[in-house]
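hey can u check if this looks right to u? its 242 residues, i copy pasted from the old doc so theres a chance i mangled smth
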Amino acid sequence: MAFEKIFKAGCFLFLGLVTMTQEVSSQDSDADSVLIHPFPLHCNFGCPVKKGEKHPEIYPNQLFTMGLLDDGKPGHWLAYYVTTTLLKERDERRAENKDPSLSILSDTTTLTPDFFWGNKSPAWNKLLVMEERLAEEPGIANAFVITGTLRHHTDVVSAETGGPSQDSLWKIISINTTAHAFVSAFIFPKGSEEAENYCSYLVDVAEIERETGLLFFPLSNLIDPVQSPDYFKNLAPHIECP
């Protein structure tokens, strides 16, 4: 996976997003409410909001941010980012505990919803590895990830368990360079537990928005109008998908 040709002219400006959040916080309270304090960078261009609303309902944690369900409990979606620092710390914990299964969020497993761990398919696990590879690419500081269950935001109840149906999982991965944001989205439906290739489950972000009732990247309106029409690019070719 070679990013050098695509990103050689620009590197990711980590301070750019920090500056962006500072600029927004100086605006009116509605705009400020979209930010995730005190960990705004878990969500690229702001954490998702429900359509028709301005305020994200969130549960922040040092390593991730979760969206709240209608009953106020966390677990609607989970946002986190992958960095080389987090990967190094994870590798140290793996060596210390002799447990290669530990993830970057393993210190918070009691708080992390089950869907973070996916459907255990080879495809899902390969996508986790790809997130790490993205974060380790030259010029990339963070791989941003948002994931959750496809419950159509009306919380369809499962007849078998009496709880919300969680047959399908979704994931949105994004990275930033100085000139563009690169994004890919996936839906892993029921029956994909044995899947080998995550590329088969690529979808448009708009499809997940329709299914969940969420609006992603709510702060994208802060992008320079001259850049915005062509700012978001397809990440798929750079994660080994056609």
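Helices lie at 4-7, 14-25, 29-33, 84-97, 122-135, 205-212.
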